[in-house]
Amino acid sequence: MATKSSGPPGVALRWAGVVAAPAALALGFLWAGGGFSPHRVTQDRLMSEMHASGSYGHGFRRRHAKGVCVGGWFDASGTAAHLSDAAVFRERHVPVVGRFALAVGQPDVADNPATVRSMALRFMPPDAPEWRTGMNDPPVLALRDARDASDQFLTQRIDPSTGKPDPASMNGFLTNHPWLQKAADEIAHRFVSSGFADDTYHSLDSFLLVASDGAKTPVRWAMVPAQSVAPADERTGDPNYLFRNLVAEIHEHPLQWHLMMTLAGAHDAVDDPSQIWADDDRQIDAGTLTLATVESEDGGPCTGISFDPLALPPGIVPSADPILQVRSAAYMRSFFLRSGETRGPSAVSPVMTATPGQVEGKRS
């Protein structure tokens, strides 16, 4: 493990990390709130459009509403330490709190193998600023900026007469946004694994790793499973089968993923999350994530966390990708709203996540 400075420079660096993340979040809030231009898509507008498209609210996250908490640690391989000063790339056994979820607005929706899955993580080095990241299983995002996001939510508005979005409106989105067609096709035809445990999760947006000499390297990252991968199974009658299978697997043994950093090539679009990067880009295995515990969000350790993609430590900075600001501002507003709401029970209950021994103990 690298020796950390305990003098003034080390203290200053740690305080810079503490201040940097809130400052970035404040800029994201101001940007999405229209502070830089009256024509911007605002936080309140996005939340209103999410609600109109079926987001449940009532104490739950506005998107990725159905989820479960997990815990474990991250062991750095050291291979990314020359590209970034972030402590997580050089330390061993960094505590991690995380969350698996489905990208849906309703917390009790039935599990579907085709629904986008997410992994969100909070890395907590004991003596350095933390790092948060939210990842999805598609390799790209079919959005380019705030206007695209707003337009997409508008096409997903629930028709009161049917209780569903208008299919013609949804189909018209890509007609009116042809620059997103390739990304939409990539998402629609992606490989779908059997569950959360054997899925790969992508950062979607690009970031810059900052080395000790100030050199910046554009990257995207992905959590790639160490478990064997299998295609999606037929759906069962259990509406929570994806989560139930994840719980059973973690109870059986810890699950692991490799943090793979993809370095941008000369022709990769760094600031556009809808663009796919080249297949032959250089990759670095930055370390291994191990998840060994699982808990319901009803009192679980991830419930009060916003996995904001701009909560970054020194050594990682945002790219100019505008969706980063949109995600950050939306996460902040969603967190603010749900913090003041009364929350009902989660579909993935404490009984479902308990070990067999814990269940028997409660019965006795």
UniProtKB/TrEMBL annotation:
Region (Disordered): 342-364
Organism: Gluconacetobacter asukensis
UniProt entry keywords in alphabetical sequence: Heme, Iron, Membrane, Metal-binding, Oxidoreductase, Peroxidase, Transmembrane, Transmembrane helix
A GO-annotated cellular component: cytoplasm
Name this polypeptide is given: Catalase-related peroxidase
Enzyme class: oxidoreductase
Lineage: Bacteria, Pseudomonadati, Pseudomonadota, Alphaproteobacteria, Acetobacterales
Entry binding sites for heme: 331
Catalase core domain: residues covered: 16-363
Database matches in Gene3D superfamilies: 1.20.1280.120, Catalase core domain
